## 1
Amino acid sequence: MRTNSTLRLLAAAAMACAITVGATACGSSDPAADGGGGKKDVKSALEKGGKVTVWAWEPTLKKVAADFEKKYPQVDIEIVNAGTGDKQYTALQNAIAAGSGAPDVAQIEYYAVGQFAIGKSIEDLAPYGAADHDKSFTTGPWSAVKYDKAVYALPMDSGPMALFYNKKVFDKHGIAVPTTWDEYVEAARTLHKADPKIFIANDTGDAGATTSLIWQAGGRPYRTENTDVTIDFSDAGTKTYTDTWQKLLDEDLLSPVSSWSDEWYKGLADGSIATLAIGAWMPANFTSGVASASGDWRAAPLPQWAKGETASAENGGSSLAVPKAAKNKELAYAFTEYATTGDGATSRIAEGAFPATRADLESKAFLEAQFPYFGGQRANKIFADSARDVGTDWSYLPYQVYANSVFNDTVGKAYVSSTTLSQGLDAWQKSSVKYGTDQGFSVNK
């Protein structure tokens, strides 16, 4: 079990807050309380200039950095890939604990923001002007970084879910695009029976995909209020997900290929993996990684758990935060704001990022954009509808990074043994309860 001083709660932790989608009440941030002068002087920092080190793996930030340096010649932006996701978080926690080596800006996925916020290792950006963007971002991403009056990061992109399907494969076997998950299971059976080499999807166990589908099904397994945490994978929404997904596992209808592997890309290219239920940021990955299947794939709304519904969920997406150890926080915030709003956001969208900004998401140019890869389809209309239909009141654990790291040791067993998904989720719950209790949280009490 990994432990780290930044994760432990001291006596003052009772004042800390966890990030909850749609949450209210718990602490506040008073801009005037910081130096007594209201907003930080970001403008002066830009005029003075200096160096800003950004830890991020997202490729579109490279152009943003170049544009920012051109606009502000006194500023030097250094983009450093310190690892993807959990690898970077470990490096960041270690740098914070050591008291040196931390970046000025760090890319942090939404599920991980709470862990850094409650560890008091990232800045509340409200005093710098972040609160002014209350209406700038779509509900899901903004709620993931904001708690009451505190804003712990600015949304960089979002991942409203959609179903990507291989139209060539579907047409060949006379399969209609499934509108419900029950229809999806039937499509999986039909495809695999027609050609045993074809699977409706791949799945070897993924924490993000699992929680996203539970989210869409109405499950709300995590609840946090101050340091009181509830974890319950026995709710109706979770059961709806496990009842359906267990059929796919029991009947061997899912490809045992790991996502993002060479085999995965090959399966997407040759049609042996026929669908992906994933975030709207996926198209750029199709274009770059599955170029040979251009024209074969299309986007569709996510299948529903009950016919006639329009529920969706987020899958992926990340933000930019300013660590408390940053050397020039005003300048770091200036870059963070530029990269996530205005020209910076527009530039990143043009490079393939999916917007978290309302203005870009609702623009005619965005909605009418045609995707040559998807046969000229105006797929952004599907993604925009999904963004509006994301279920509210979703919460991540304030130590979700740890929880996700033990997913394969618990739920993952359902993919390689007789363990059921329900049993795996129960084991995940017990592991997460124990860890939270060990860190000083009051869990399931």
## 2
Amino acid sequence: MTFLFDIGRVLLDFDFESSLTRLLPPGTPDVTARLTRLLERKDEFETGRIDVESYVTWALDVLGSDATPAEFHHAWQQIFTPNEPMWECVRKLSADGHRLILFSNINGIHYPWIFEEFPQFSLFDDGVISFLTGSIKPYPEIYQYAIDTHSLDPANTLYIDDLPQNIATGRELGFRTWQYDLKDHAAFESWLSTELSESKL
């Protein structure tokens, strides 16, 4: 069986705001608005339409921060917390011989850094990474790229993501999908057990 796994809020939880706020000088006004502006351009960053250096320079200006690019990189990276129940599941799926593929909207600061920070990503056989493909979820192009590049049969591919719009596109293309909720891992385990049992029939 082949699995497509999203990263954010599935394999890793994240909190941009707490980490990036540390870059702001004391008394900075409009903190929420500044952070919102940064995240509004995240899609551009994650499709590779804006390169790392340009994004960091722009972001530091928006924040009104005197941090260095290296300090911004560090803050941008220190947002993740592993979702241990899901990693336990990934380890078991890998040990059982299933094919595991990352399917993520991600940028050039986080990738490939996450592979160095979290060695457990080596359990994945491959990945479809947005900024390397030039397209992002939920647009169909990146799903088709995954299908073509990895010779996927959607009817025999389980796709796990936290965002409903991403799941909707996956379902339209025939994937067997689950919208993951960090607060209800047990529901995912129940679905997975059913899917794996049916695949053996």
## 3
Amino acid sequence: MRIFWRLMLTLLLLATLVVGGPWLLVQLLTVGRTWTSADEAPGRDVVLVMGAATRYGLSPSPYLQARLDLALELWRQGKALVFIVSGSTSDNEPAVMRAYLEQNGVHPADIVEDTGGNDSFSSCVRAGERFGVAELTVVTQSYHVPRTVATCRLVGVDAIGVGDDTRAKDDTWRSYERRELGANIKMVYDVVISREVGQSGYDPAVQEALARHY
């Protein structure tokens, strides 16, 4: 029986390390770098809006619209110049995000679609390596912001984050919060193995968009 409890304790400690280690890393990498209001956040030239589900590939879901509205608020306050809309083409995310931003007054030349942003790691890597962005503001939901900022920093992009916190804290929201624990572990794995995300060469679109403003 004593051996059994020692084994259980060992497994518990390992589980705590596996789950708690990545969580702690995320917290350390995001201290003083996340906000839930455009009013409080500092400005950066580039905003990376993370993709989310759309409505039949035609319009943003409530979660995605909230992200876009927050990014627009940064832009209206002069805290952003150029948008990278990063998501999956399977749900037409980048095109839907572009259309929504244009409908709300953003010039088409200030929007760059990243059609290879299939997850947070891909979006961060491609922002730095494909589009040549050294620093940016990530916009997503508040539960997602810490991991996304941490991911970008770990792959060499100096990121801060602003997270939407307006959605109802219902079962859906809480399930996404819990999912972050496992996603933190995957983030560490992706960074360690330098997972390939399909760069397809350098794209000057972001730099060309920024040049319009300087």
## 4
Amino acid sequence: MSDPKISEATPLRAADKIRETARELFYREGIRAVGVDEIVAKAGVTKPSLYRTYKSKDELAAAVLREGADRFWVLFDAAVAEHPGDPRAQILAYLAGLSQRAGKEDYRGCPLTNAAVEYPEAGHPARVEAQQHKAELRERLQGMAQAMGARAPKALADGLLLLIEGAFLTSQLFDDDRPTTEVARAADALIGAYLAD
């Protein structure tokens, strides 16, 4: 008889295995580079299992990117929660965390940014997910810039967005001595310039 105090992990459903496997492969290798056959083989499921849940690889990619956006907001909102009522500290806390994550060997930037680069064609489901997420981030940054009392909140928000996106990209360009170590300091200087009289 098994010990009732020990709970066995619930096995993943096929759809969850597919999504998790796709997320790992898409992030490491790129969405276009990974085929459906590779996903189902590594997930240990069948193709019909994939197509029961997702009509196409594009739909699977969009689902994976929605999860990526959710994970982004968990990290962003955690930084916000650390510094209630202080948007400058909130942004700098998020960027300090980004700098640490970007220093890891397996870090490949933001999956949504990567998808936008991979899919330049308008209307592609992966591109649409990326654009929606980045538009939401831009809007949130603008609200934070307004709350800071910036002279030109939209311009400050766009500058911060450029720093964030630059951190995502440059983390993939440099193996050592990554510029991402300076992203929080650069953002602090930028914010200061927009708040100065």
